[in-house]
From TrEMBL:
Record key words, sorted: Glycosidase, Hydrolase, Signal
First-level EC class: hydrolase
EC number: 3.2.1.23
Catalytic activity: Hydrolysis of terminal non-reducing beta-D-galactose residues in beta-D-galactosides
Segments forming domain Glycoside hydrolase family 2 immunoglobulin-like beta-sandwich: 222-331
Protein name: beta-galactosidase
GO cellular component: beta-galactosidase complex
Presence of the UniProt keyword Hydrolase in the record: yes
Upper classification of the organism: Bacteria, Pseudomonadati, Bacteroidota, Cytophagia, Cytophagales
Lineage top rank: taxon: Bacteria
């Protein structure tokens, strides 16, 4: 069956966009009566004809009003729990009790309810409203509504994306009436997929209630049902499509007047008004007018978000006038080859995913200031684009984005992968058409509404054909934006009809196998695709939890997941290290985001990226992937100014073949300028400097490119620096900047002596096994340096990479890596010849990547290693990469990383660290404070860890199961 954008049984009357007068609106916010209907008995029992017993405040949700069931192990959630086995390991038993219930999978609401809920209010219709058209306006409901006035049913609607509007003219006479609204949030109503961010417990929650503007509206019987503006940038004009609805029995001669004025701009511009006469027939009349905008027209984009306010006035003869105001921008977005172009200028999308993070309420913010705050934070961090993963925000988000200059991609409210599919004849097929039609009607005038996807990562045997038809339909229906079938990872089929594509191939860091460099890019992943390629869900690098965040949850959701992780860390004797773990893992996370974003910026032909994410994702097992928390607040290890150095319209880039050098080499880096600013740069001087840690200059120079066009990358030149003058291990920093501007970027690199000074013979016994001689040396009070790479048994199950945990370990059944960086005391004398910060950085790659770690489960409480890997917060094992201890009368220094003492030119950092450890072991400063029994040390190389992933047991079949089918 060929799908068309019809509304089926859903009622849709358009959105009243204009400013209504106070006399035209009866606000419904305040106290309502309510009753929950878990048995779905209310319709049969005619609850609409009875008084409901409880009271609630609307707008709001049931949870905000304290209604619903307490959360427990038996709660039937909406969302999918992919793997609950970890939650059933013995240590978690205390969190499964009713008096201490804490789940790790997502935030915990105070109460939970899925099913019908009835809301009722008495309204008094003014006598002055007699003869007027009356509408019930529910700005956002979740998500099926059914309405009665007194005992008469008016209708029902299902929408997750737009206001529910009910025509009440025939049932509301002046005087008191009982208004009853039944809201049903069961997924069975229309299954869009249990993990869709429009409904899922993972993010905004499957709330029940009514939010935003709730009001009765009175209008004239002949009115502007729809005002849609289609900018024509090339001809400096705006096509205005009007739908006039005449509910009287007679045709009326009428006049429509159009006027527009610029705002949100430093330059005033008044468009010459126009008017036309026509006959408003009974029923619907469509008009299309062309409004010349004039030579002074101001265009909208990310740099100049100039907006126009169009006033459309309808003046029927012998009837009350109607007036509507809509905001629009003179903007054109197109795909030209593999580029995205706005108003003729190439753009590059630096995008973030908004997944529906609303940690106080669990439902979307409905006011412009709230969205302005979030989008301003994103702008401060250098972003110009937001994708709304499988949901559509309310109008306030579009309004804020219009004013700040953001390119938005809302989506059909579906992740049709788990529990449903596309193209297989399910109800969701038509629903996506219906919902995106409602989105076009409600939000289509907004300049920021630039892109549309049907949803996220669909399933379905016929999904490719469905998505192709979807794109063709919208391309032919609405030229104001560009369209793609779905946001997808690598395995999804290509839809050739896409105007642009979102795919995951152009992402990731190749550091699992390759030595870190800044020369790689993603051109091989995108070169076979003929349309603009936007990277799907880039990043997903984890950081350790910020337990200071817990106190910020002052609403109906609580961070019981973070509480669980904090308590478990304390149970493992590391509660005092939480902040150090956060800061150290955060610096590694920031480094990974910088490296991956820069790789996209230097990829020729890439159209942009969509990050997942700048902020944490509080669901799906608790995915702490943001440098910001779900409140869009900083965590203390990254600022907007730091982030903008590598994420803004103009960014210097350097292609370093590696980050670790020896003093007999020449440092060389090709440099270029990513520039997607509002215009070409005039001749600009760019300086380069290489600085020592104390800020002193090692070398400097400058580039003066003849021109820097916008919309591309421009070579600057090559930095060359012989390193022969470097005599000791040091960290240097290359910076490229445009003096007097905010354009600057930098990269650390490390230089180690090509030949290390010879160490005097000593009594330190160096070995690769804790052999009999090592034990004898310790027994007689000697010193042992144990380079134990490959020998670890207790901790062998822990996989360490240089890069941190991806997404989170629990959600993927403890898929490696399990470690998120490490903490180290940079002032420890063992590291005197190996300069380091308190966290992992690129010089550590050859040391820690794929290294074994030691599990210190039997070491004394409070024991702290020299280099301590940070375990996944789901397990919080006490780990070590380098440790020291007194063993009997002897002194022991152990590394489980491969620190081969040979002169390996390919591993200068490992050689340097070994030298630093050996020199320390020879010194008088080698005097470990902690004592450990020899058998405990031997167990590291002989006895497996007591707790293995295989010991986790699955829960009862009746526990932690979703409510949907």
């Amino acid at each position: 069956m060929r799908l068309v954008a019809k509304l089926g049984f859903f009622f849709w009357f358009g959105v009243l966009s204009g400013p209504l007068q106070a006399a035209d609106v009866l606000p419904l916010a305040g106290e309502w009566h309510c009753r929950l209907d878990p048995e779905d008995a209310g319709i049969t029992a005619r609850w609409f004809a009875t008084s409901l017993p409880q009271t609630v405040r609307l707008p709001g949700s049931l949870a905000e009003n304290g209604l619903g069931d307490p959360v427990s192990l038996r709660t039937k959630w909406t969302a999918t729990i992919y793997d609950s086995s970890w939650f059933y390991n013995p240590r978690m038993a205390k969190y499964r009790r009713a008096d201490n219930f804490k789940i790790p999978f997502w935030l915990t609401p105070n109460t939970y309810y899925v099913g019908p809920a009835w809301y009722q209010k008495t309204v008094d219709i003014p006598a002055a409203w007699r003869g007027r058209r009356l509408l019930l306006f529910l700005e956002r409901a979740h998500y099926a509504t059914r309405v009665w006035v007194d005992n008469a049913e008016v209708g029902q609607q299902v929408s997750l994306v737009a206001p529910h509007l009910y025509e009440l003219t025939k049932v509301l006479s002046p005087g008191p009436h009982t208004l009853t609204v039944r809201v049903d949030n069961r997924l069975e109503t229309l299954n869009v997929g249990p993990d869709s961010h429009s409904v899922s417990d993972h993010i905004q929650g499957n709330w029940n209630g009514l939010i935003g503007r709730l009001e009765l509206q009175a209008g004239p019987p002949v009115f502007l049902q729809s005002v849609q503006v289609y900018p024509d940038v090339a001809h400096r004009a705006a096509r205005v499509k009007l739908v006039v609805q005449n509910t009287t029995a007679k045709s009326l001669r009428s006049i429509v007047q159009l006027a527009a004025q610029a705002y949100n701009s430093a330059t005033a511009h008044q468009v010459a008004p126009m008017q036309t006469a026509f006959v408003a027939k009974t029923g619907e009349t469509s008009l299309e007018l062309t409004l010349p905008m004039g030579e002074a027209v101001q265009l909208w984009d990310e740099f100049h978000p100039a907006l126009y306010r169009l006033t459309a006035a309808l003046r029927p003869k012998k009837s009350t006038a109607d007036e509507q105001q809509v905001s629009f921008g003179m903007r054109e977005i197109k795909a030209v080859g593999n580029r995205l172009v706005v108003n003729g200028r190439p753009i590059f999308l630096r995008g973030d995913l908004h997944n529906g993070e609303f940690p106080l309420t669990g439902y979307p913010a409905m006011d412009v200031p709230a969205w302005t705050r979030v989008l301003q934070v994103l702008k401060n961090y250098g972003f110009n684009h937001v994708r709304f993963h499988s949901w559509c925000p309310p109008e306030a988000a579009f309004t804020a984005a219009d004013q700040l200059g953001f390119y938005l991609q809302p989506e059909g409210p579906s992740w049709p992968n788990h529990g449903t599919s596309l193209g297989d004849g399910r109800p969701v097929d038509q629903f996506i058409y219906d919902e995106t039609t409602r989105m076009a009607t409600a939000y289509g005038n907004h300049a920021s509404y630039c892109m549309l996807s049907a949803g996220n990562e669909p399933a379905g045997r016929n999904q490719a054909k469905y998505l192709a038809d979807f794109i063709k339909f919208w391309k032919s229906s609405d030229s104001r934006r560009i369209y793609t079938g779905a946001s997808v990872a690598m395995s999804w089929p290509l839809v050739p009809e896409n105007e642009y594509m979102i795919k995951s191939g152009a992402r990731g860091l190749p550091w699992a196998k390759d030595r870190p460099n800044s020369t790689f890019d993603y051109r091989a992943a995108i070169e076979k695709f003929p349309m603009p390629y936007v990277t799907h869900e880039m990043g997903q690098w984890c950081v350790f939890p910020d337990f200071k965040e817990i106190s910020q949850y002052t609403g109906v959701y609580k961070a019981r997941n973070l509480e669980l992780f904090r308590e478990d860390l304390a149970d493992r004797g590391m509660g005092d290290q939480a902040e150090a773990f956060l800061q150290a893992s955060g610096k590694l996370q920031l480094l990974c985001y910088k490296s991956e974003i820069e790789a996209t910026l230097r990829t020729p032909g890439l159209a942009g990226f969509q990050l997942l994410g700048l902020q944490d994702f509080p669901g799906q097992g608790t995915a702490l992937v943001g440098v910001l928390n779900p409140f869009f607040r900083e965590k203390g290890y990254a600022t907007a100014a730091q982030y903008r150095r590598f994420c803004q319209p103009t960014v210097p880039l350097a292609r370093l073949p590696k980050f670790v050098f020896t003093s007999d080499e020449t440092f060389e880096a090709a440099t270029e300028l990513y520039h997607y600013g509002p215009e070409d740069l005039p001749q600009t001087t760019f300086t380069w400097t290489v600085k020592a840690p104390d800020g002193s200059f090692v070398a400097q120079g400058q580039f003066v490119p003849a021109a820097v066009p916008t919309g591309t990358n421009t070579p600057l030149g090559t930095v060359r620096l012989p390193l022969g003058r470097i005599t000791k291990a040091t960290q240097l920093t290359l910076e490229i900047a445009a003096p007097g501007t905010a354009i600057a970027n930098d990269w650390n690199f490390w230089v180690y002596p090509a030949r290390l000074p010879a160490l005097l013979p000593s009594e330190v016994y160096c070995c690769t096994r804790l052999d009999a001689k090592a034990q004898q040396v310790l027994a007689r009070g000697g010193r042992v340096l144990l380079n134990a790479a490959g020998q670890v048994v207790k901790g062998k199950e822990v996989a360490m990479s240089f890069t941190p945990v991806f997404w989170n370990t629990s959600w993927f059944k403890m898929r490696p890596p399990h470690v998120t960086g490490f903490v180290v005391d940079p002032t420890h004398p063992a590291l005197a010849d190996f300069p380091t910060e308190a966290h992992s950085d690129l010089q550590w790659w050859e040391i820690v990547n794929q290294a074994q770690v030691m599990h210190l489960e039997d070491f004394p409480a409070g024991f702290r290693p020299i280099v301590q890997p940070i375990d996944t917060w789901f397990l919080n094992r006490r780990l070590a990469l380098v440790l020291e201890a007194r063993v009997g009368p002897g002194r022991l220094l152990v590394s489980s990383a491969n620190l081969a003492p040979t002169d390996d030119a390919q591993r200068p950092a490992a050689r340097q660290l070994y030298y630093s450890l050996l020199r320390y072991a020879q010194s008088a400063r080698f005097n470990p404070a902690a004592a450990v029994d020899l058998q405990v040390v031997k167990d590291l190389f002989e006895t497996p860890s007591r707790e293995q992933f295989s010991t986790f047991t699955k829960g009862s079949p009746d526990e932690l199961k979703p409510q949907h089918k």
